[in-house]
Design brief:
The structure is a homotetramer of 276-residue chains. By secondary structure, chain A is mainly α. Chain A folds into three domains: 124 residues, Up-down Bundle (Four Helix Bundle (Hemerythrin (Met), subunit A)); 91 residues, Helix Hairpins (Orthogonal Bundle); 35 residues. Helices cover 64% and strands 0% of the residues of chain A. The first copy, chain A, has twelve helices and no strands. In chain A, α1 packs across α2, α1 runs antiparallel to α3 and α9 crosses α10. The first copy, chain A, is extended and about 75 Å long. Chain A starts with 10 loop residues before the first helix and ends in a 36-residue tail after the last helix. The relative contact order of chain A is 0.09. Chains A and D meet through α2, α7, α8, α9 and α10 of A and α9, α10, α11 and α12 of D.
């Protein structure tokens, strides 16, 4: 659409923009799917490198693969910066930061070798997978879940406060009842046990041995079993209510700063003020 | 509003009341948030004191912090008593007792040192956190959950009776099948195991080893997996039904006795008869 | 109502009937509550007797209590037989058999001492607790749950068939993958493991150790986590739909054979043909 | 009905077809139920054969039973091929392949003895159990579940992507925090742990021991406990919406290629074009 673009952004840059940032042309969709595979494969390489047996044999090749993907993501990041009209706004948006983080750690690891936490940052590039939800059929569905969760966020916060209070009080009680010799060595550890029990995870690394402790644990389990009905009920009820707005308008993404969630009647981007 | 107050409660007392007990003025909200932080930090101090390594090093400072918070809560409790028009009604209300309990244990521990159960009472002050649900957006949400749970309380009691009956019968069966040498040393212990299994917690401290026992356990697990649908269904259905009354009127809190839940058309408090 | 009763059943028998079998008079309600306590206390005695330490000290008194309750239940059973107009129909109804079973085991244990399975039959008397759901507010609620479960029974059967098929196929796969040395010693045991995992119980007595096994286990866990949505969805949807019939008519219980669930327009009992 | 059949398919073949493939005549229903039992018993034989103690004593008889059932299934498979008008279309349909697989492995095991994976293929014949859902009351119910799951498949995929991303990022974090000496020996293993925890299975074979690890684990557990509300909400909301079409028409199965799901007004099969 002519009106959405300033005269400068015409030609190749406009086409490149629609390939890299959008998914409604065949090339755009292809680009997104290729990117998705690159992300998944690069994270797979990170994972395999951590397995000692595999690292001993294929470590060399895995590092080459890692460098290849980093180069690719670097190129892609630069392309995004060139193509977007307001590079700074993009660079400091959430997606921009994640795009940046998927490139940097491997480069840094040249300088500071062996920093384990870079591993975690490397897997953060997985968050870029959520870009694919721009793809056709997923747009509405992803929005639907996020909208339902947003609408019930206060109810969920009330629920979590109640759960945390319960878990702290019962954890303290168990610390007093069972005591250190049964594994309940401190209140924080007893609270950890209470969370393990209430959420029905039940590792069994700490478990009550006194009669009173087992009785209280039974009460906590039945409580945990019953109150899971609360968040489920909240989200179910939320999802069953008809959606207020049409989901269609949400697909409008600002060409400048990648902001979404514009009101249907909006003419200008709510973040950067650019005309949509 | 003039009509809501007797002539005596004017001036500073009226202002203090609205700061301490209400949350619709900026000062009132600030007071509540400060109180929330004081509660959370004081409970954190109790928790950290129980960790031996931390207690050995910082125990002295933690006890000072504890005394500081106790002094603070004592002041706050006295302020509440002074400001409320009917101190006795407040003192024997649920919230009043909790406010009282958050002050006393530390004072008592001067006299009787080493009573472990005082620890539990100290964490009970966490219950005061629920005062924050007076704050703006939470009022309706907390009410919503409580209302839905109240409306389904008979259904949940029927469900719990069925679960308890099932757990007792299957626990007894397992006691007979597995016997003491496999950890099922008594019927209460077998019932404890049945609860651990039905609620899908599954510690693994006791687990069946005979073929018949494992078969019965499998049946119990699938039952537990399937019947969790019942409380969830009850609460979901309850929450999906439209609310009968407007949630707005629930925010009216009696200035005398802190009672809530007044009918929208009510002019007088249902508990103490004071004009709202 | 005159029309509901044959001339013979008038006088004391009629009054005794309403006390013992019904719950809408004050005496009837009192009788039911007393019975409820007797059941709970007698089952508690059975449970405590199984704890070695308690049995060693209080065993003698517990056995006296047991005999007392058995005498009570025997009297009550005879009273029911005398008061009901068709004793045989009652005696062979489900509730009649349970009433009978709550009396017999203790008597038999005179003859055959030490039969452990009598313990289980003794706890079966807990099923009589469901009589209390005749009491006021519970009638509709219990009916509601049972009706919702009945209405979704075919859906739940389809779901359970799918779960069982899944569990058998994955159990066999794990038996082949992990083999006997990792605890998967036979297909039934592997199926037991699959059930423990799918239902998210997770004892940890058997757990996969090979990479392939852990991968398959991960898939099974996520499946188990996701498909719990199916029974929950079924029951929630069922409970959210408005009830077709008025629950009120369900309270009509045949005076002859204790059958319930008569159609609202029914004039005769569907089981024994007696006029309602 | 005369109009549904070409002249060639009359007489015995038509009758045999309705017995073997359909379930609306008494003979057809009997055939399906007999087949169901044969499947269940044959899988039971496979399972029992894997138990060493049973195999040592009854192995010989179990193998005879196995051969008997294989002969039966072979006969049945040939009968299906003969009776269906387009054998090739049937042979390459999903149900046709499963029918084929239930016969072949036992025959192959003559040639290649000891191939463990044939065991798994043998249990695949359990999938044939789903044929019984043709039986009367089940048709609509099975369809209902499948339809609801199909309608929510994109939402469930979005949810699973979010879960997998979360599990990979937290797994990597735990690998860095806990390290190899606490059982978190590689990123894939840490991800396995994260799945075990998030799904609330909680084996306890690997569990965090550092304070930071236990804190992160607590967050993951509460997340897992809360986000189970999402798939449940999706499916509940889906099932609560009224079904678009009448379920009745779905029972029409094409006589040629076994296709179902024809539109109510359809006169010809959508797959093979044969007149219905």
């Amino acid at each position: 659409m002519e009106s959405k673009l300033s005269p400068a952004a015409s030609g190749w840059r406009q086409r490149a923009y629609s390939v890299i940032f959008e998914a409604d042309t065949p090339e755009g969709r292809l680009f997104d799917i290729a990117l998705l595979w690159a992300i998944v494969l690069s994270v797979l390489a990170v994972m395999l490198e951590s397995v000692r047996e595999i690292n001993a044999v294929y470590g060399y090749y895995l590092r080459i693969v890692e460098w290849g993907f980093t180069a690719l993501f670097l190129l892609e990041y630069l392309a995004r910066l060139v193509v977007v009209r307001r590079p700074l706004t993009y660079a400091f948006s959430l997606l921009g930061i994640i795009d940046f983080l998927s490139v940097v750690p491997t480069l840094i690891s040249l300088a500071i070798a062996g920093n384990q936490y870079l591993l975690v940052i490397r897997t953060l590039r997985l968050l870029r997978v959520f870009r694919i939800f721009k793809l056709g059929q997923f747009v509405g569905e992803g929005e639907f879940i996020v909208t339902a969760l947003k609408a019930s966020r206060y109810k969920i916060m009330v629920f979590l406060t109640a759960v945390l209070t319960l878990v702290i009080i019962i954890g303290t009680l168990m610390y007093v009842i069972e005591g250190g010799q049964n594994g309940f060595t401190s209140i924080p550890k007893s609270i950890y046990w209470a969370i393990v029990t209430l959420t029905t995870v039940g590792y069994g690394d700490i478990s009550p041995t006194t009669v009173l402790g087992q009785t209280l644990a039974s009460v906590l389990m039945i409580l945990g079993y019953a109150i899971i009905a609360v968040p489920t009920g909240i989200v179910s009820a939320q999802m069953a209510t008809p959606r207020s707005g049409s989901p269609a308008y949400k697909q409008v993404i600002c060409h400048e700063c990648q902001a979404t969630d514009h009101k249907p009647e909006a003419e200008y981007c709510w973040r950067c003020g650019e005309k949509l």
